[in-house]
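## retry 2 of 3
previous attempt timed out at serialization; input unchanged, resubmitting
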Amino acid sequence: MRTADERLGLALAGEGPEPLTQLLSDLGGMPVALPVLALALGEAFRRGQRARPLAAVGAMAAVPALVVPLKMWIDRPGPLTDATGYYPSGHTATAIVAYGGAALLLAPYAGRGRTLPVAVLLPLATGVGLVLRGYHWPVDVLGSLALCGMLLLLMEAAVRRFRLREYAYAHREYTSTGERERDGEGDTECDTSEGSGPAAPRSERRAAPKPPGDREGSVEREGSG
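## retry succeeded, writing output
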């Protein structure tokens, strides 16, 4: 597999117009990818999200913690250099987490049908540019796609689990409050004594918590309003 990978990498290195392939490879650089994620984080915070932006920041912080030890351990030389530490591709890893995280943050508002294809296309374009420029072997790119794709899936699973727990806790609080109100009906009935004006409840009943799927819709509606 390594022999085939290196044969393919050397055959592809230098192919394609250099300005375009360089532009594609630069999509995975920190100066390009991080501002995109930062803008998505700002929009998500503005719309009222909390768990998913924090998870996206954690996923981006995990990229060097995962990639750098693997680079040092595998110590693979690059296609056109004797330098080592090329597997997995750091640029591809950055592109996956930055653009994938931004897509997940904006999906409740722009729709997954719009954001997720872009999140898939940009890391793939980055990998193509890196291989065509001779910066990485094809398997370097594929390794990062697999590793950081899993990282994004874990991030989204953690967010869903957190929100389900948050909903369960809110539902328990709502249920216990309703039981207390029913137990004290005599004290919480409306005041209808003569001269007191319109009946007014002495205690307000809390609104039932919405399940996680409904909360995203409510955030979207509030933001769009």
